[in-house]
Amino acid sequence: MSGVIRVTVWNEYEVERIEPEARAAYPRGIHEEIAAGLRGWLGDRVAVRTATLDQPEHGLPLPVLGATDVLVWWGHMAHEDVSDAVVARVHARVLAGMGLIVLHSGHLSKVFVTLMGTSCNLRWREREDRELVWTVDPSHPIAHGVPHPIVIERHEMYSEFFDIPRPDELVFVSSFSGGEVLRSGCCFRRGKGRIFYFSPGHETFPVYAQPGVQRVLANAIEWAHSPEPSLLVLTASLESPIGWFRGQGGS
Ligand code: ZN
C-alpha cells in the first residue's frame, strides 16, 4: 500500500435524506458519488473511505484522521453541529501536513472559516444559472486535463465578493448566466498543509457526476497530498536563553 494516497470523503449527509431533489441527484449521498469519482479517476493510487456527521466523532476519530492524507469536506446545513473538538483535530492535522479539499457550501464550515480567518461569506442565488468554470492557471497541476471551460448547465450561483484571504494560487474563475463571477478554485497553504477550495457541487444538481468536475477533484487530491508528512511539534516551550544553540552545530 506504500505510495497510496489515503483519502477520507466527509459529508454531513443531511440534505440528501430530507430533500427529494437532493436525494434524486445523489441517491447514495454526495460522499459516495465523490468517492466513486475519485476511485474511477485515480484507481489504485488512492484508498478512499467516507465519513458522515452522524457517526461517532463525526466519523473522524484520531485514528481515522491520523491515517488520512487528504480530507474532502462537503457540508451545507449543519455546520454548527460539527463539534469544536473535531474542528480542532482537523485543523491540527492540516497544519501537520494533511491535505484538505473544501467543496461548495463548505465555504462556511467551521473547519474552513477557522483555517482562513475571515468570514468566507459570498453572494448566492439558488436558481438555475449556467456556470462556466474557466482555467486561469493552465500550468497548475489541478488544471491538468480539465475542459476549458467546464460547462455546468444548471447550477446555484455563487459570486464575489467572496470574503477569503488572497489565495496563494488561483486556478479557476467561474462566470454565471446572471453576469456574476467567482474565484471558484483557490489554493491555500496553512502550516505544512495544502488546502483547495472548489465551489461547484450544489446538492440538487448532479455536478459531481460530471467528468470535468471529477477530474478537478482527482487532480486536487494528488496536489494536496504531501508525500512526506511530518508532524510539527510546537507545543514544547521554545524559550531561548542566550547561547542556547551552542553545542548544537551552531557557533
Ligand atoms: Zn448549494
Describe the structure.
The chain is built from 7 helices and 9 strands. It is α/β, with parallel strands linked by helices and 251 residues long. The protein has a 9-stranded mixed beta sheet. The longest helix is centred in the last third of the chain and has 14 residues, at 211-224. The model has no long low-confidence stretch (mean pLDDT 94). The structure holds zinc ion. The site of zinc ion has 4 residues, from loops.
Give the low-confidence spans. none
CATH topology of the domain at 5-118 and 186-224: Rossmann fold
CATH architecture of the domain at 5-118 and 186-224: 3-Layer(aba) Sandwich
Query: Which sheet architecture does the biggest sheet show?
Result: 9 strands, mixed
Global geometry: globular
Fraction of residues in H or I helices: 10-25%
Subunit arrangement of the protein: single chain
- Average per-residue pLDDT, rounded, comes to 94
Find the count of extended strands (DSSP E, 2+ residues). 9
H-E order: EHHHEHEHEHEEEEEH
The Rg value, from CA coordinates, equals 19 Å
Compute the separation of the termini in Å.
Answer: 44 Å
CATH superfamily of the domain at 5-118 and 186-224: Class I glutamine amidotransferase (GATase) domain
Going by helix content, strand content and strand pairing, the class is alpha/beta
* CATH class identity of the domain at 5-118 and 186-224: Alpha Beta
Small molecules in complex: zinc ion
